[in-house]
Amino acid sequence: MPLIAGGLEGPSSYLLRQIATAAQPWQDIALGSSNGRIMRKHTVSLALSAVVCLVAAVVWPRAALASESAHRPIEKSSFGRVGNDAVEIYTLTNAHGIEARIMTYGAAIVSLKTPDRAGRFQNIVLGFDTLDAYLAGVPYFGASVGRYANRIADGRFTLDGKSYQLPKNDGPNSLHGGARGFDKHIWTAESIQTRQGAALRLTYVSAAGEEGYPGRLTAHVTYRLDHDDSLVIEYQAVTTAPTPVNLANHAYFNLSGDLQRTILDDVLTINADLFTPVNATLIPIGELRSVTNTSFDFRKPQVIGRRINDKDEQLQLGHGYDHNWVLNKTRPEALTLAAVLTDPDSGRSLEIRTTQPGLQFYSGNFLDGKPSGGGTVFKYRTGLCLETQHFPDSPNQPAFPSTILRPGKMYSAKTELAFRVVK
Ligand code: GLA
């Protein structure tokens, strides 16, 4: 199949090959019918056609925009309460029917419906229908994680000569912002209509000292569901005192649409020549290691399950893949291709572009099939995370790109998830 067919060219051509070039069937149908209608209407005479074309040129863009807005409403409804505080859920829909539901608790993606190659829409992220299930405790499903996504060794760092101690909520380390990270707070939300698509801007203000971090941090995440079938996630933050910041989305993808199936048959490409090997508690040991001749080489499309059980020290330490890849960049902060994930059965393909320097690929190794809050069971490796972010433990690793935000500066990062279909 063309998706994984090899070639003689370099790694980037493999990456490009995995990017679907086929027009999506649901787009063909939409475009075909409107063109056909216009053509039939205006064959009466050349003169009449010219007049109609002129009018169309003036009216069409507005009409198109108006009909697009009609197709992409943002709906808001109640999703329950945390104590006295209400949690809302917003539904964003684009002109092709792709739908993202985002709740204010944890600024989390609750569901994401995209079409397979037959045009069938299914949810491709792990999540629950009720807030109670999330409150019962889930491993960051779809959430915006912060103030520092990923691990900080011993929950400790020194900044400008001062030491800070964070809660240790993952063995000896601090993980995803500590005991109560940004994923466990209610964000305020504002819906916005843009030319590209419907957007939701969420804000959370983290008090100085919260979870041990210095400075009051005002964080924003904006989700925009575009007409070109991509979900754009943008982060911004400002602080009142120097602090580490690393914001990331923690969606677990299962492109098959059947959330009981494992992700082991999916095909993954990662645009990275290097990764950061870890110690037994998943803290990078400081080395940037080449992926060449390792089970970590995803520069050409690889079936995830093919090497996941290799006798490899790093795979054993991670209980599978749970590592940070150093993304190949033309320049720091350029928006570049990070990864392509494809489910050959359904034909769904996800292309990820980001301004971030790293990608944590986590193969769902801690999903254990035990019932979660709502009674739903998510089995071992039935979802995988592709978390675009800074490298783990950066506050303690001076050789890694800096994650320190200072007053007067703006933290900003952008990740695009493009939903495609391969034949
Ligand atoms: C991250 C980590 C994993 C795990 C999950 C949550 O992605 O890298 O080790 O902790 O979150 O279960």
Task: Give me the secondary-structure category.
Answer: alpha+beta
The hetero molecules present are:
alpha-D-galactopyranose
Low-pLDDT segments: 1-70
Radius of gyration: 23 Å
Strand order of the largest sheet: 11-12-13-14-28-24-23-18-21
Contiguous helical run count = 6
Shape: globular
The helicity comes to 10-25%
Strand content: 25-35%
| Oligomer kind | single chain
Largest sheet: 9 strands, antiparallel
Mean pLDDT: 86
The tally of strands reads 28
Distance between the termini: 9 Å
Describe this structure in words.
With 423 residues, the chain is an alpha+beta fold. The protein has six helices and 28 strands. The protein has helices at residues 11-18, 25-41, 46-71, 131-135, 304-307, 313-318; strands at residues 74-82, 85-93, 99-103, 108-115, 121-123, 144-145, 151-152, 156-159, 162-165, 174-175, 188-193, 197-206, 217-226, 230-239, 243-244, 248-249, 252-253, 267-270, 272-276, 289-290, 302-303, 322-327, 336-342, 348-354, 358-362, 384-389, 404-405, 411-421. The strands form seven sheets. It has a nine-stranded antiparallel β-sheet with strand order 11-12-13-14-28-24-23-18-21. The protein has a six-stranded antiparallel β-sheet with strand order 17-26-25-22-19-20, with no helix packed on it. It is globular and about 60 Å long. It starts with 10 loop residues before the first helix and ends with a strand. The model is unreliable at 1-70 (pLDDT under 50). The site of alpha-D-galactopyranose (GLA) has 10 residues, from strand 25 and strand 26.
